[in-house]
Amino acid sequence: MEKRITFNELRKIKDSLPDGAIKKMAQEFEVSEETVRNYFGGANYENGRAVGIHMEPGPHGGIVLIDDTTILERAQELISATV
Q1: Which residue range(s) make up the domain with 58?
Q2: Can you tell me the distance from the alpha carbon of 4 to that of 25, in angstroms, rounded to the nearest whole number?
Q3: φ, ψ for residue 39 (rounded to 5)?
Q4: How many domains does the chain have?
Q5: Cα→Cα distances 5→19, 28, 81, 83, Å
Q6: The whole model's pTM is what?
Q7: Is residue 22 a contact partner of residue 36, using CB atoms and an 8 Å limit?
Q8: What is the per-residue pLDDT across 17-72, written as a single tens digit (0 to 9) for each?
């Protein structure tokens, strides 16, 4: 499922993740930790893959179009579990 979100919102979600969540998601989805970080706006393509996000300039850091929301949804679940 496709989703639009601002870059600032995406980074806020990443910054709200509990300790160890990046590693946990990487293991669950069988990808590298850098790939998960790339999903949240990182750009380390030597150690991680591209993840189907497309960025457009605009307010609030720009608009991010996410092709597959699976990692985003899991991140939100992990954040909710810690609140």
Answers
A1: 3-82
A2: 21
A3: -60, -35
A4: 1
A5: 23, 23, 22, 22
A6: 0.84
A7: yes
A8: 999 999 999 999 999 999 899 888 876 666 666 667 778 888 888 999 988 899 99
52: left (phi over 0), alpha (psi -120 to 50) or beta: left
- CA gap 2, 16 in Å, rounded: 22
The number of angstroms, rounded, from the C-alpha of 78 to the middle of its chain's C-alpha atoms is 12
Question: Could you please report the per-residue DSSP string of 48-67?
Answer: S---SEEEE--STT-EEEES
C-alpha distances out from residue 4 to 16, 28, 29, 64, Å: 19, 24, 22, 6
